[in-house]
Amino acid sequence: MQHIPLNNTQLQLLVDGEQGLLFCHQRNTLHKLEPAGIALLLVMDAGVDKQQCIAQITNLSRQSVEDIESLYWLLSGLYHARFDADVDANLPPSNNEPLRQYRDSLYFEIAKRNAFRTDRCLASPQAKENCPEPELLWIRIAGLVFRLCCKHQRLRTELEQIFKPVSFLATDVAGCAEFAFEIKIGKHAPAISDAPDSESLQFEFYSQGKLIATELKFNQVAPVLIERIQILTYQASGFRFCFHGAALSENRKLLLLPGKSGAGKSTLTAYLAKRGFAVHSDEMIAFNDKFDALTIAMPIAIKRGAWAPLENEYPQLKHQPVWQLKDGRDVKYVWPDDDISQDTSTTFYSDCDSVYFIAPDFTTSTQLKSQAMPKEPVHSRQLTVIEMLELLIRGGYQVGHELSASDVKDLTNFMDSADRDVLSYCSSEQAFQYVKKILAEK
Amino acid sequence: MNNNKKANDAVDNDELTPEQARRQFIKKYGKLAAVTPLAVTALMTPKTSAAPKSCRPNQQNKHCPPESNGF
């Protein structure tokens, strides 16, 4: 990445090949610029007036005056830190909406915790009173204790099975928790809670006494609960950035598998876990200030299409209950290693010598055959820092505090020092062989 | 950054004054603009920073319905 100094000290411009990153200090926002935007910004920054800016770039680019003028207005909004510019999230401007801050997207449990520094023993004591010990489940992840109250016996038994490697007795955690959850049967449910047709019941999910999800079917409860725990865990960790993806390591090498849901991250993670890789997280790549990755000991969610291919690695898949994500996909949960208790202390993995971003792009062999252009079964492409950053962000991301120029600089430097590839493949074995080869090269 | 080294070489000259370097950047990127999109893309803003979830609105994921709010 090359830094281009600007006269406007409220902006920071970095270029990487043909593309640029523009950080706006006043708005705490980061934007991607294409070549026309970079050129136009530099002319604007030299103090040239609007007409001349447009004329100069139109001349060089041979694009239409109207197109360059539209671009000028967008950039002018950023350049002069006008908050009405419609470049925020590419959404139409809303004049009545209050300005958001990054901290606004932290979950309410975290905001409350940060504000009051609540002692874990004081977290929602009323829930403890309402729920006798046999109906409680105590879970410890990354040094945090979650207390779950569930009066529905069958559901509680199923949840106990899922969380077995990270479950504790109340006495192990001194009967105190940072977060108190409760799963209740919905108000309009049949009177007998343990009726054989549990599937017809609807459940409500409360966190710290507040209703956060309703009308959940029996088989939708675990995915909601697991997602809430994962998110609260990284948000409570003092994270700097979090991206959607998996984090693994092997021999002091950190392997990050970012991307959108459905790209093949979890299946590949489960496959690599049986081939010597330690799994730090299946869903969230959370970094601290030093870009160490947070370990969130949770089961891996295996989607329906991967149950058969992973049966050799995880024979227990055959007998696991089926859960359903809100989007309708069926999943089963497996732990990378069922035989051992998971490390439940606060851990950021700091022991690595090198970092690899590999964005999985799984294609079934049927899909491959149906594509018009022939494609290699395994194909990798190196990405620039900006391309990988965009891929990470599109998969889902969160910034832990108000974004600063040093955050952007440190993140791009970190990514610059890492390997960055997108990997297309048809089977986990192919991806494993590729990963093994790449990791052995350094 | 091997991919990008070539692109940056055109203006990697220590002997240029800042003004000359700026002019060279403008020329280089202005010409590239003939064959690249005219876009400014918001990457990180307070509006888009949110807990990563399996399904998010407008994620354009084949597995996620467009109206999904992922809770």
Automatic annotation (TrEMBL), chain A:
Cited InterPro entries: P-loop_NTPase
Gene3D superfamilies to which the protein is assigned, alphabetical: P-loop containing nucleotide triphosphate hydrolases
Protein name, per record: PqqD family peptide modification chaperone
From TrEMBL, chain B:
Protein name listed in UniProt: Uncharacterized protein
Annotated stretches, region: Disordered: 47-71
InterPro entries, alphabetized: TAT_signal
Natural source organism: Thalassotalea mangrovi
